[in-house]
């Protein structure tokens, strides 16, 4: 039987517990409300910003390079618009998604043979793993996975094992379509995040552009636009001097990536690789456009905004007249073809002409050609070799005798009018050295006019502290005599950089033996070697009354303009620059100028038969140097055949020079002489004065 008293006692206990529970719930709700209040009121803005957090990334947009004109503003390097297809990789895109897009894109565009040939075995293995993830995973054993978990192997080690275990049969399973997709995927994968990577900009047809443009919604990251390539309206004329640019595929050279990226360049950006394009990269490159890409916290693009449109590179106007340049190149080509062929001209394969304004240093023509037998084509080919005017050096022969005479004056071993006997010279331990004929007694002017070697020998020996009196005598010269002559020669630009605004200039070879016979060879240009450009600067210095001008190939720099065919305002004028003044007296320079005039205009002058009837009245000096052939057909370790280099330096008119030239024909013949140097010079002068470049 139940006890009613006990039931009554339980009721108060239940009510108390219920009240306690309700009070606890009340406290919890109060705390929650307070907490929510604090979060919303105190920290609300902070958490709102965190939820709405975005990332802004600024991306550079390449612009076309500046144009290059000749001195008369004939366009010689242009930008040609071409269809292009690009891919921009987002931060969140997966590799498998990129492959899917590449596969779809391969349905709309063709892939070049060059791109297919660039696919390597490693590329194929990486791609096979992407296409066959389960099979690739199965190539790793459980024990190897366990080692990775234990930290004994890295994930990269497992990947290497997968690569090693892919069989040739598995690689062969990749179809032609797979490889085409891979070629496109390689382009996708080579770029950096959010930077457009060139997929194709050569041979993109209008149909391909239309197909891709119509299907961009199923090709995330892909875009179409008009790109540019360098165009050369004058074909190969001056081509080697203008230089090369990298392509969108090659981008920055590997060895210069750090240098250019530190200056804001993208990896796939095109730059100048050689000559003018390289030397004036900062001018021609332009100011890239910039646009801002906004990403959400997951890395998805939520908007883009153009910051600056950018500006294409500034334009260059050269000192060269392209029509005169063409004439000079044609002259060289014709003379090489006409003289090449016999056994006597077996090694003749090149010739150079440098023409410059001696008063300003402006290069009027920089021309060089190579004519050689191409084994693959089984035919003779002519190639542009203008850069050889400052990157190759040769023994120049008697053309340098003007510097020898002036050095003799300066060192006090001869003076204007000094007479010396031209007869064979033989010192102990040295073969007989002589002029091409015995000339008897002659003075400095006649020595230049008739090109006496002996006069130069005796002058050089005197500088070396020696006096030749009889055959067979022992002859010693001071070590410093070589330094004296080289220092004097350098005042003309011989044996040192001319300062031309082109990269890669060479200074030539300096002989190391310091004996009397070599000093004699030095005095007639048959010891040290010089470039055709150095030779032109040397004669320009004499023509310009002893002022050595810095040669330059760029005349003006212009701001770019949008309208084609118009020239923008001048950004910078390249002013003439005097590098030094000869330390010789003006009267001595006048004396050598007279000797040079006699060479070309007086009876007995070594070039008079070519120029004494020309109305432009040139002055100059011929040169013939006995040399050893070391060109492309020489096999190192074998005997170097004897050859003869032909040179000629000149300026005209002699009393008020407006052009100075050097003509260099290395390895012109072996046994029987020709006058290829003078034939070229005569035709170059005739072309210049009949045409008058820039006027």
Automatic annotation (TrEMBL):
| GO biological process annotation, one example | regulation of cell shape
Q: Name one GO molecular function term.
A: peptidoglycan L,D-transpeptidase activity
Q: Does the keyword Transmembrane helix apply?
A: yes
Localization, UniProt: Cell membrane; Membrane
User: What pathway annotation does it carry?
Assistant: Cell wall biogenesis; peptidoglycan biosynthesis
Q: Which sequence ranges are marked TM in the entry?
A: none
Q: Which EC number applies?
A: 3.4.16.4
Topology of the protein relative to the lipid bilayer = Single-pass membrane protein
- InterPro entries, from UniProt? Beta-lactam/transpept, Beta-lactam/transpept-like, PBP_dimer, PBP_dimer_sf, PCN-bd_Tpept
Record flagged with keyword Transmembrane helix: yes
> Which controlled-vocabulary keywords does the entry list?
Cell membrane, Cell shape, Cell wall biogenesis/degradation, Membrane, Peptidoglycan synthesis, Transmembrane, Transmembrane helix
Kindly state which reaction or reactions the protein catalyses: Preferential cleavage: (Ac)2-L-Lys-D-Ala-|-D-Ala. Also transpeptidation of peptidyl-alanyl moieties that are N-acyl substituents of D-alanine
Q: Which Gene Ontology terms of cellular component type are present?
A: plasma membrane
Q: Which Gene3D superfamilies match?
A: DD-peptidase/beta-lactamase superfamily, Penicillin-binding protein 2a (Domain 2), Penicillin-binding protein, N-terminal non-catalytic domain, head sub-domain
Q: Where in the numbering of this chain does the Penicillin-binding protein dimerisation domain appear?
A: 61-304
| Residue intervals of the Penicillin-binding protein transpeptidase domain | 352-684
> What is stated as this protein's family in its record?
Belongs to the transpeptidase family.
Name-wise, this protein is: serine-type D-Ala-D-Ala carboxypeptidase
Q: What is the protein's species of origin?
A: Pradoshia eiseniae
């Amino acid at each position: 039987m139940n006890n009613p008293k006990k039931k009554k006692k339980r009721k108060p206990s239940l009510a108390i517990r219920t009240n306690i529970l309700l009070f606890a719930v009340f406290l919890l709700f109060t705390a929650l409300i307070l907490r929510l209040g604090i979060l919303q009121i105190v920290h609300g803005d902070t958490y709102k910003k965190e939820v709405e957090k975005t990332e802004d990334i600024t991306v550079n947009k390449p612009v076309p390079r500046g144009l290059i004109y000749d001195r008369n503003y004939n366009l010689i390097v242009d930008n040609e618009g071409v269809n292009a297809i690009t891919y921009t990789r987002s931060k969140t895109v997966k590799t498998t998604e990129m492959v899917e897009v590449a596969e779809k894109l391969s349905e709309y565009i063709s892939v070049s043979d060059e791109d297919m040939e660039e696919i390597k075995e490693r590329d194929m293995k990486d791609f096979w793993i992407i296409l066959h993830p389960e099979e690739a995973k199965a190539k790793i054993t459980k024990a190897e996975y366990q080692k990775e978990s234990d930290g004994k192997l890295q994930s990269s080690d497992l990947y290497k094992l997968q690569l090693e275990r892919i069989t040739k049969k598995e690689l062969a399973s990749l179809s032609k379509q797979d490889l085409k997709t891979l070629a496109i995927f390689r382009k996708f994968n080579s770029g950096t995040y959010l930077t457009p990577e060139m997929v194709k900009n050569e041979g993109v047809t209008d149909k391909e552009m239309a197909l891709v443009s119509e299907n961009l919604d199923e090709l995330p990251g892909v875009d179409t636009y008009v790109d540019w390539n360098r165009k050369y309206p004058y074909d190969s004329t001056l081509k080697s001097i203008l230089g090369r640019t990298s392509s969108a595929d090659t981008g920055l050279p590997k060895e210069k990536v750090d240098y250019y990226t530190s200056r804001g360049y993208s990896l796939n950006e095109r730059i100048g690789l050689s000559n003018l394009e390289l030397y004036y990269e900062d001018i021609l490159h332009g100011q890239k456009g910039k646009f801002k890409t906004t990403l959400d916290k997951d890395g998805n693009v939520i908007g883009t905004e153009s910051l600056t449109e950018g500006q294409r590179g500034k334009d260059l106007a050269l000192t060269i007249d392209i029509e005169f340049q063409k004439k000079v190149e044609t002259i060289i080509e014709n003379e090489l073809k006409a003289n090449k062929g016999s056994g006597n001209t077996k090694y003749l394969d090149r010739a150079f002409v440098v023409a410059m304004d001696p008063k300003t240093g402006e290069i009027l023509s920089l021309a060089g050609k190579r004519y050689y037998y191409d084994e693959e084509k089984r035919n003779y080919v002519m190639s542009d070799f203008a850069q050889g005017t400052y990157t190759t050096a040769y023994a120049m022969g008697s053309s340098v005798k003007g510097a020898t005479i002036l050095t003799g004056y300066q060192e006090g071993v001869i003076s204007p009018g000094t007479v010396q006997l031209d007869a064979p010279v033989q010192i102990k331990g040295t073969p007989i050295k002589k002029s091409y004929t015995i000339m008897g007694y002659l003075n400095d002017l006649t020595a230049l006019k008739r090109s006496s070697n002996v006069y130069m020998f005796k002058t050089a020996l005197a500088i070396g502290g020696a006096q030749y009196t009889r055959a067979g005598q022992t002859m010693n010269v001071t070590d410093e005599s070589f330094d004296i002559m080289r220092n004097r020669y350098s005042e003309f630009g011989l044996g040192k950089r001319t300062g031309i605004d082109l990269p890669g200039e060479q200074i030539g070879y300096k002989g190391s033996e310091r004996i009397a016979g070599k000093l004699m060879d030095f005095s007639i240009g048959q010891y040290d070697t010089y470039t055709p450009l150095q030779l032109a600067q040397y004669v320009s210095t004499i023509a310009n009354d002893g002022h050595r001008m810095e040669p330059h190939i760029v005349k003006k720099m212009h701001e770019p303009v949008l309208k084609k065919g118009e020239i923008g305002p001048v950004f910078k004028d390249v002013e003439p620059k005097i590098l030094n003044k000869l330390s010789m007296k003006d009267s001595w320079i006048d004396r050598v100028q007279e000797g040079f005039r006699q060479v070309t205009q007086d009876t007995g002058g070594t070039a008079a038969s070519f120029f004494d009837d020309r109305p432009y009245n040139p002055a100059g000096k011929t040169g013939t140097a006995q040399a050893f052939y070391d060109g492309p057909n020489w096999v190192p370790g074998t005997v170097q055949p004897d050859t003869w280099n032909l040179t000629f330096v000149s300026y005209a008119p002699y009393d008020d020079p407006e052009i100075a030239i050097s003509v260099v024909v290395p390895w012109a013949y072996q046994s029987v002489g020709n006058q290829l140097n003078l034939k070229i010079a005569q035709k170059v002068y005739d072309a210049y004065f009949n045409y008058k470049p820039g006027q």
